[in-house]
C-alpha cells in the first residue's frame, strides 16, 4: 500500500456508509451515471479508483462489464465482499495514487466519482492520481472524474464557512475552507432516531476544473468532454459540479 494523506475509513465508517448514502444510491441517481460509464467502457475493462462498498462497481458488474477496483480501506472492501466475490470483482487494497490493479495498461475506462479525488489532500498526490490513471489506461482509454465546484461565494464574511446541503431528512452539511492551502473540512450533522444528532467530518483538498486539466496534461491526457452532470448538461460558471473526461492519445 502506498502512503496517502487520505482519511482511512474504519470499520464503523464502513458499516454506516451505505445507509448514510442512500439518497445517492437510488436507481434515479445511479442509472444515468451507469449509462455513461458503460458507454465509455466500450465493453472493455473498467477500473474504479476508491471503489468503496461497491455502490458503482457492483451494478456495473451486474450489467456485464469487466470491472476491478482500488480501495484504500480494507473495511470498505469487506463490505463490498458481502455483495460480490473477488472472482467477479477484484479489488486491490491500496492508495489510488500509486497502487497497481491487475491488467495495468489495458483498461478502457478508469473512473473516480463522488468528489473522491479531493480525499487526496496534497496537490502532489492528486497529480500522482492522474498519472496512475493514465498508467492503467490502454491507448485511447479514458479517465473520468466527478467533482464538486467549491462554493466559495457562499462563505459568510470572515468566517470561511459555507452551507452546502440541507436534505429533507435533516442531514446538514457545512464546509470550512483554508483559501491559502485549498484545504476544506466538511461537517455533517445527521439526526438520529433517538432525537440526538450524530456529527462527522471529513478533510479534503479542493481543486478547480482548470487545475484538473493541468494535472491531466502532466499525465499525458487530453480533455475530451466536460459536463455539469450525468445528463450532459453544459458546464457553466454557475455549475455546482462537473463530470470531466480525459483521453489517453492513441500514440
Automatic annotation (TrEMBL):
Keywords: Methyltransferase, Transferase. It comes from the Bacteria. Coiled coil: none annotated. One of its GO terms (biological process) is methylation. GO terms for molecular function: methyltransferase activity. Residues 1-22 are annotated as: Disordered. Residues 46-141 form the Methyltransferase domain. This is Class I SAM-dependent methyltransferase. It comes from Terrabacter lapilli. The lineage of its organism: Bacteria, Bacillati, Actinomycetota, Actinomycetes, Micrococcales.
Amino acid at each position: 500500500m502506498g502512503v496517502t494523506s487520505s482519511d482511512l475509513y474504519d470499520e464503523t465508517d464502513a458499516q454506516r456508509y451505505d445507509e448514510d448514502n442512500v439518497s445517492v444510491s437510488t436507481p434515479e441517481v445511479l442509472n444515468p451515471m451507469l449509462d455513461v460509464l458503460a458507454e465509455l467502457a466500450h465493453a472493455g475493462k473498467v477500473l474504479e479508483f476508491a471503489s468503496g462498498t461497491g455502490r458503482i462497481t457492483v451494478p456495473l458488474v451486474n450489467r456485464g462489464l469487466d470491472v476491478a477496483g482500488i480501495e484504500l480501506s480494507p473495511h470498505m472492501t469487506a463490505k463490498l465482499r458481502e455483495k460480490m466475490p473477488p472472482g467477479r470483482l477484484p479489488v486491490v487494497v491500496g492508495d489510488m495514487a500509486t497502487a497497481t490493479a491487475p491488467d495495468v495498461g489495458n483498461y478502457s475506462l478508469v473512473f473516480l466519482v463522488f468528489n473522491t479525488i479531493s480525499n487526496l489532500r496534497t496537490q502532489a498526490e492528486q497529480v500522482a492520481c492522474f498519472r496512475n490513471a493514465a498508467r492503467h489506461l490502454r491507448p485511447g482509454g479514458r479517465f473520468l472524474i466527478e467533482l464538486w465546484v467549491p462554493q466559495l461565494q457562499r462563505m459568510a464574511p470572515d468566517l470561511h464557512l459555507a452551507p452546502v446541503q440541507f436534505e429533507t431528512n435533516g442531514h446538514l452539511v457545512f464546509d470550512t475552507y483554508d483559501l491559502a492551502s485549498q484545504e476544506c473540512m466538511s461537517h455533517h450533522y445527521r439526526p438520529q432516531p433517538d432525537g440526538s444528532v450524530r456529527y462527522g467530518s471529513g478533510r479534503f483538498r479542493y481543486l478547480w476544473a482548470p487545475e484538473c486539466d493541468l494535472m491531466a496534461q502532466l499525465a499525458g491526457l487530453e480533455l475530451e468532454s466536460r459536463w455539469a452532470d450525468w445528463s450532459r448538461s453544459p458546464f457553466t460558471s454557475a455549475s455546482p459540479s462537473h463530470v470531466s473526461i480525459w483521453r489517453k492519445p492513441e500514440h
